Automatic annotation (TrEMBL):
ATP binds at residues 263-270. The lineage of its organism: Eukaryota, Metazoa, Ecdysozoa, Nematoda, Chromadorea. Residues 1-78 are annotated as: Disordered. This is Kinesin-like protein. It is found in: Cytoplasm, Cytoskeleton. Keywords: ATP-binding, Cytoplasm, Cytoskeleton, Microtubule, Motor protein, Nucleotide-binding. One of its GO terms (molecular function) is ATP binding. GO terms for biological process: microtubule-based movement. PANTHER family: KINESIN MOTOR DOMAIN-CONTAINING PROTEIN (PTHR47972:SF30), KINESIN-LIKE PROTEIN KLP-3 (PTHR47972).
Amino acid sequence: MPSRQPSRTGRPSTGLRSAIPHTKIPLTGRATTDLAGLQRMRTSSEPGRPKTAAPFSVSASRGRVRALPPPRPNLSDPRELKKKEWKLNIAELEKVCEERSRLVSELTTQNCSLTLEMDNMKTQLNAKTMLHESACQEVARLTADGERMKREAEERESSLKAQLVTQDQKVRTLLNDVVDLRGKIRVAVRLRPFVKGEDAGESLSHIGFPDRRSISVNNGSKPTAYQFQHVFCQASQEYVFDEFKELIESVISGYNVAIIAYGQTGSGKTYTMRGGEGDQRGLIPRAVEFMFLTRNNLKSMDWTYEYAASFLEVYNDDVFDLLRNERTKLKVVLGTGRVDIPDLKTVALQSPDDLHELMLLADKNRSTAATKMNETSSRSHAVFTLRVTATNAISSEAFTSSLSLVDLAGSERAKESEVSGPRFTEMTHINKALSNLQNVIRCQLRKEAHVPYRNSKLTMLLQECLGKGNSKTLMLVNLRPSFANLTETKRSLDFAANTSQTVIGAPLKNESSQ
Ligand SMILES: Nc1ncnc2c1ncn2[C@@H]1O[C@H](COP(=O)(O)OP(=O)(O)OP(=O)(O)O)[C@@H](O)[C@H]1O
């Protein structure tokens, strides 16, 4: 860029201007008279004329230097024309240069502030990059620590699980040894309270309870005393269930368990087995709830349990499915040592709630009728079965077992029941089946070679619980409290006493490996 130099007139001038040739007016010490020149200078100082640098002359008279009027441009002179054109160009160029320098200075300012901003951002980015890197290192360290701790915890857990499984097996073996020691067919007695329609004010002096295992009856002549595994006197549903919990738990360990409710009509068999709602729930719903609870507790030891339920009735010596609405007689097949009912419906249970629906269906399908002895007397024997399939992922143990809860029809005398017609036929079948049951137990008691299981459908179905299989069996004998029923109560207690003497052989655990 050409540098600016002050002109002789004091105004800044560009280098370009200095590059332009001037018309030089010579200064002399001698007086000269150049009228034409003076004339031109005067003319150029007139308003409207372009101003040009005033030439100088030295007055001859006074010897002083005076500015001469600029020479008039000679427009016919091409040099003058050129000069004029240059002047215009120079003015133009000066403007452009000024604009350029303004822009340059503006851009320089902007550039400076942008450079500053960029430097700031670079500093911030560097700081953030450093932070990120240190955070990444911390994360990597924590991840490695976490993985190491997880590995250690897993190793510890599997060693604890192995210990737990061993201990669990020991506890189960001990528990079952205890249960096995309690007799072959276990027998318990339950005396129900007086219910609506009975004389609640009647005394219970004809029945005595010396302790929780004994009961005595006194018909006025001589009291007879009996001893059983347990005697429940007007006990709650919860109390009764708690007493049988241990036995039911052995199903979880692979044993078949059967609880059979026996007793005179109206003595509380259905109440004990099925019960009502809420606190009135009987053994069937409570046992299923307990099985699900135990299943959850054993999950931590890698046991998987699957449950499925079936519900049938033996009515007039025929078998019917209580979980099907259509009433079709079911075929009972006797295999080698096993009873099978091929068309019996089995329903998988996912939770205790699933049972509720099944119970309602079974209630609807079960044969009941009002008799003089019981408003809703069961006219059939009902068998609820819960099948268990268990597998253990760690020990590879596997087995199937079953819990059978049987509500027998009530024994009754035709004279007392005052039944006739179809009720009489039902009663005949009921009594025949129950007398077969007593006969089977008697044969077991006497260790006879032949036990007549096949004499009725009921004994055929129960043969696995009555000595032929490997069940742990409990007979729960129900009693009515009235003095009027004392003869039947004594008969039931005699049957219970015989049953408790019955040797059916030690139960075997069902085992198979995967
Ligand atoms: N422990 C008890 N507490 C209160 N009420 C009971 C008890 N046991 C039975 N009952 C009531 O006694 C009546 C007869 O009971 P339930 O129907 O269970 O007798 P059952 O032995 O099944 O009779 P059946 O052989 O005729 O079917 C019912 O009203 C029942 O609610």
